[in-house]
Design brief:
Elements: H1 7-10, H2 14-21, E1 27-31, H3 37-50, E2 59-63, H4 66-80, E3 88-91, H5 92-103, E4 114-115, H6 118-132, H7 142-154, H8 175-188, E5 191-192, H9 194-207, H10 209-218, E6 221-224, H11 232-242, E7 252-256, H12 271-279, E8 284-288, E9 290-291, H13 296-306, E10 318-319, E11 329-336, H14 337-353, E12 361-365, H15 371-381, E13 385-387, H16 397-410, H17 415-421, H18 431-444, H19 448-454, H20 463-486, H21 488-498, H22 501-507, H23 513-527, H24 533-545, E14 555-559, E15 568-573, H25 584-589, H26 592-606, E16 609-623, E17 626-629, H27 634-638, E18 644-648, H28 663-673, E19 700-703, E20 707-715, E21 718-723, E22 727-732, E23 736-738
Parallel strand pairs: 1-7, 1-8, 2-3, 2-6, 4-5, 6-7, 9-10, 11-16, 11-18, 12-14, 12-15, 13-14, 15-16
Antiparallel strand pairs: 16-17, 19-20, 19-23, 20-21, 21-22
Bound molecules: adenosine-5'-triphosphate and magnesium ion.
Amino acid sequence: LSAAPPDYLARLNPEQRQAVETLDGPLLVLAGAGTGKTSVLTTRFAHLLMTGRARPWQVLAVTFTNKAAREMRERVAAILGQTAEGLWLGTFHALCARMLRRHAELVGLKSNFTILDTDDQMRLLKQIMEAAGGIDTKRWPAAGLMAVIQRWKDRGLTPARITPAEDSDYANNRARSLYEAYQRRLVELNATDFGDLLLHMAEILRSHPDVLADYHRSFRYILVDEYQDTNLVQYLWLRLLAQHEDPARRNICCVGDDDQSIYSWRGAEIENILRFEKDFPGARIVRLESNYRSTKPILAAAAGLIAKNAGRLGKTLRPGRKDAEGEKVRVVSLWDSEEEARMVGERIEQAQRRGHPLSQCAILVRAGFQTRSFEERLITLGLPYRVVGGLKFYERAEIRDAMAYLRVLHQPADDLAFERIVNTPKRGLGDSGLRALATLARAEQIPLARAAERITEADALKPKPRTALRELMQGFARWRQVNETEGHVVAAATLLDESGYTDMWKADRSPEAPGRLDNLKELLRAMGDYASLAGFLDHVALVMETDENAEAERVQLMTLHAAKGLEFDTVFLPGWEEGLFPSQRSLDEGGDKALEEERRLAYVGITRARRTAIISHAANRRIYGNWTSAIPSRFLDELPEEAISREGQSTQRSNRLAETPSVFTGAQGLLARRPRLTEVNPWDQRERPPRATSLAKGERVFHEKFGYGTINDIDEDRLDITFDHTGAKRVLDRFVRKASE
Ligand code: ATP
Ligand code: MG
C-alpha cells in the first residue's frame, strides 16, 4: 500500500476525496449548501498542481465573485505553501477580459480597449437612439434598450445571430438595428461593455478554431464554482473550452446546487445543470451529503423550507459537524423596524461580549433599503460595520442626490449641493450653461442658487435651460413653503416628485432602478424620525462622519444575493414579511417560478449560519409616518416547528396578523397584548412622543449605550451629555431617558 495521503486529502470525507481525485473526464458535483463544494474545488486545484498533473497556468478556475477568487487563491497558496503565479483564476468577466486583450483584433478592437461602465453605456445608447431618430424616448427609454441588449448578450446573441423568435418589440422592432449600431460604435470607440467580454470571447472561440485549439492545448483542467448560476453565454464559453476534440481530455469539473440558483433575473439558467450530462456524455456525478457548516436545527429549518419547492433535483443533507447539536433557529416577532434593529444590535453586543468577532456576525437583507435602520443602530452602538458588495445607505447615489436637494432647500447658499442637483435630472444645462451661472455668481459674489434666480436673457443661457432653471427655483420657493406648513417629510416628498427626480428613476429601466426608488422611500421614512429638516440634516452629517479604521473587525451587512457561498457564526435574517420577503415583485408576478426563487434565496440565507440563525419580522412598518401592519412571511410558516423557537408577541400562530388582515384590528390586537407599548398610538403621525421637551439642562439621564450622565446642553434633538464613565458626548435624545437612579 502507498504511503498515507497528504494532509490536504486526509481532511476530506470519502465522497469529497473522490471528487478531488477523479481528475480525468467531466465531473459534476451536485450537493447541498455547506457540503464542501468550494473546498473540493480548491483542494482539486491544489491537488492538480501537487501531483504535477498541471502547471499553474494550465488550470482555468471560475468563481462567482472577485472575493471568492481571492479566497481560492489564498487557500491554494496555503496548501502549496507558496503563492502560484500566472493562475487563470477569477470571475467569468475577469477571465474573459484577460483573454479578449489577447485576441481583440479578431473583433475589430485594439488590445487596450476600455470597458465601459453602465453610465457610459447609457450615454452611448442615448446618442445612438438620437442619431437613429424618430424614437419616442418617453415610451421607449434608453434603459429599456439596454435591458434588451443585455438579455441578448446573456444568451450569446450577436446582432447577426438574433432569430425572429428572439427578437424584441422594443421601439416597433428597432432594437436589433439599434443593437447593431451600438456594437459598431463601441468598436469605433475601441470599447466594450461588460456583456461584450463574454459575448466577444464566445464568438471568437466559435469562429476561430485555431484560437480554440490553442486554449484546448493550454487548459488541461477547468473548474467552475456556483455552476447553477451560469447564464447561457457563460455556458457556451465553458462548453467550447471544455469540448476538446479528444474526449479523454474533457476535464471539466463543475460544482453547484440547484437549490441555490438565485440569479435567474440576470439570465442564469438552471437547465445548464441538466444539460451537463447531455453535452458531456459519460460525465460522472458525485454527490456530497454531509454538511460541515451548520448545526442540526439550522439544517432542519433550511431543509423543511426548501422542501416546499417543486421540481428539485433532490439531494440529501446530513449534519456532518462533530458538534452539530445546537440552539434552535430563533424566529423573533417585533413591533416595528426600529425594535427589530434594536434586537439585532443587542444580540451583536452580547455576542461581542462573549468574545465573538464582529466579522462573524452578518445581517442579510432581501432589499438594499433595509440596511438603513441597521446601519443607524450600529452607529449608535458604536459597532463598526461594512456593507458588502454595495454602498452604505447614505453613500448611495440617489440618497446623495436627494440629500443635496434637501440641503439646498434648507440652505440655498450650499453651492456644492446645488451643483450636484442643478442638472439632475437633466435640464438641458450643459457645461456652458453651468459656466454662465458660475460667472454670474462670481461677478455678483452671490451663491449659485441666487444666480440661478437672477439669470436673464442677457446671460448667455439658451431659452430652454433658462426656463428650466426658473421652474426649479420657483419650485424651491414653493417647497420651502410646504416645509413651513406641512412639515419636512411632505416637503421632501413633494420636492422629489415635482423636481422630476423620482420620475428620472421611474423612467430608468435598469435593474437597479426599483431599488433606488425603495431607498428614496426609506429616506422619507427616516426623516419622519426627526422633528425638523435641520435636525435630520445634522443627523446625517454626523452619521456620515463616523470615521472608520479599515482594519477593525466589522459586522457584515449585505443582501442575500451577495451572501452566496459565504458563512458566518451568527446570521440575522430580518424583514421576513409578505411583500418584502418574498418580494412584492415575486408576488405580483404570480405563479410559482418567482416564488420558488425567493424560497431558494431564503434557503441560501439560512444555510449561511454556522451556529446561530435569527429570523425576524416586524408587525408594523411605517410609510410616510403612517403605520401599516405587515403580514409575516409565508416562509415562517414553512419552517418545521421542531427546528425553531418563536419569541416576541406573536408566539402563537393564531395571533398572526394574517388572520386579522385589517390594519385596525391587527395593530390594536397587538397593542392589547403588549401593554408596555400602549403609550404608542399608531394612528399618530409621529413615531414616538418627542422626548427632548421633557428633558432639561442639568438633568440626570440614562443612555442605552453610554449609561448615566448629566445634560450640559440641548440643541433640538441632540444633547451634550457628560457621562459618568465615558466622558462628554453628543447623542440623540431618543436614546436617552430620565434617570431613575
Ligand atoms: P455553499 O453551497 O454554501 O457554497 P459549499 O458546498 O461550497 O457551500 P464550503 O464552503 O466548501 O461548502 O464548506 C463549508 C464549510 O465546511 C467550510 O467551513 C469548510 O471548511 C468546511 N468543510 C468542508 N469539508 C469539510 C470536511 N471534510 N471536514 C470538516 N470541515 C469541512
Ligand atoms: Mg461554495
